[in-house]
Automatic annotation (TrEMBL):
It comes from Vanilla planifolia. GO terms for molecular function: oligopeptide transmembrane transporter activity. This is Uncharacterized protein. One of its GO terms (biological process) is protein transport. It is a multi-pass membrane protein. One of its GO terms (cellular component) is membrane.
C-alpha cells in the first residue's frame, strides 16, 4: 500500500516472498540452535529450531505475505475521507470494511485451489524457479537505477506527443499516461509490472488473454464510445480517475455533503449528477463483471475438479 500512491506503482507480490523465504527457511533450520527457550515467570517454552523447514511454515509465510503485500481497493475509501474530507474513520469501521472485501477473494481462492494448483514442469537440467527468480531479481534491481534516477523519462516515451505537441487528439491517442498509449514505449519495469503484476510469473495463456482484452477495451470499445459521445464522453477527459459535474469541471463533492457528513439530496439534485470519464465507466462495469466471470471460468474449465 505504501507504493500505491506512486504514479507507477511498485509491485512486490507474495510470489517473491514465497520464493525467497524457501532458502532462508532452510538456512535457518540448518543453523539455529535447537535448545528450548523458556519464558520468564511462566511454564511456557519454545524452540528456535523445532525441525526442518516445512511446507506448512512456507504456506503460512505466503499467506501472511499475500495479506500484507497486496493492496486493498476498499482502503481508498479511508484514504479519501481523511485526505479530502479531513475526517477520521474509526479503526474498527476501517477494519470491517477491509475484511468484507478481502474475505471474498480468500474464500474463492480456497474453493478453486485444488483445481488451479499445478506442479512445476521443466526439463531435466533446466533452470529452476529459484534460479530464474534470482537472475531476474538481480537484473531488475540493477537496471532500475537507469529509469528510476538517471533517466526518468524512460518510464514512458510517447512518440505522437513528441511530434504533435499541441494537438489534443494526438495526446488522446498517443499519451501513455492520459491517452490510449498508441506509439508509446516504456522502459521502466515498474511501469510494466506496476498494476497487473510481473508478466514473468504469469502463465502465457493468461498474458495473451489480458492482451486480447486490452486491445478490445482500449483500442475498440474506448474509442468507439468516446468519439460517438456516449454518455457525453467528449465533455470529459478520455482517461481520468476524477469525477466531474455536468459542465466538465471537477465535481465539488463538499457542496453536496452536509455538516453531519451525509448526502444533501436537495443540493445534489440542484447541482449536478456525478460524471466519470468513459474509461472509468468501462473499468467499473467490466470490473464488476469479473466477479461472475471468474466463477463461470472455473465452472466451465475446471468444474469437475471442484
Amino acid at each position: 500500500m505504501f507504493f500505491a500512491y506512486r504514479t507507477n506503482q511498485l509491485s512486490v507480490g507474495s510470489v517473491c516472498v514465497q520464493i525467497i523465504t524457501l532458502p532462508i527457511g532452510r538456512f535457518l533450520a540448518a543453523t539455529l540452535p535447537k535448545k528450548d527457550v523458556r519464558l520468564p515467570l511462566t511454564n511456557w517454552s519454545f524452540s528456535l529450531n523445532p525441525g526442518p523447514f516445512s511446507i506448512k511454515e512456507h504456506c503460512l509465510i505466503t499467506i501472511f505475505a499475500g495479506a500484507g503485500a497486496g493492496g486493498l481497493y476498499a482502503i481508498h475509501i479511508v484514504t479519501i475521507v481523511k485526505a479530502f474530507y479531513h475526517r477520521d474513520i474509526h479503526p474498527m469501521a476501517g477494519f470491517l470494511l477491509a475484511q468484507t472485501t478481502q474475505l471474498l477473494g480468500y474464500g474463492w481462492a480456497g474453493i478453486y485451489r485444488k483445481a488451479l494448483h499445478l506442479k512445476e514442469k521443466r526439463e531435466k537440467g533446466g533452470t529452476t524457479r529459484l534460479q530464474f527468480f534470482v537472475i531476474v531479481f538481480i537484473g531488475s534491481f540493477a537496471y532500475y537505477a537507469v529509469p528510476g534516477f538517471l533517466f526518468p523519462c524512460l518510464s514512458c516515451i510517447s512518440v505522437l506527443c513528441l511530434i504533435f505537441k499541441k494537438s489534443v487528439a494526438a495526446h488522446q491517442i498517443g499519451s501513455g499516461l492520459r491517452g490510449l498509449g498508441i506509439g508509446s514505449f516504456g522502459f521502466d519495469w515498474s511501469t510494466v509490472a506496476g498494476f497487473l503484476g510481473s508478466p514473468l510469473a504469469t502463465p502465457a495463456t493468461a498474458i495473451f488473454n489480458i492482451m486480447a482484452s486490452f486491445v478490445l477495451v482500449i483500442y475498440v470499445l474506448l474509442p468507439l464510445t468516446y468519439w460517438t459521445n456516449t454518455y457525453n464522453a467528449k465533455r470529459f477527459p478520455i482517461m481520468s480517475a476524477h469525477v466531474f459535474d455536468y459542465t466538465g469541471r471537477t465535481y465539488n463533492t463538499t457542496r453536496i455533503i452536509n455538516q453531519a457528513f451525509t448526502l444533501d439530496a436537495e443540493e445534489a439534485e440542484s447541482y449536478s449528477k456525478i460524471n466519470l470519464s468513459i474509461m472509468f465507466v468501462l473499468t467499473y462495469g467490466l470490473g464488476f463483471a469479473t466477479l461472475t466471470a471468474s466463477i463461470m471460468h472455473v465452472a466451465l474449465h475446471h468444474g469437475k475438479y471442484v
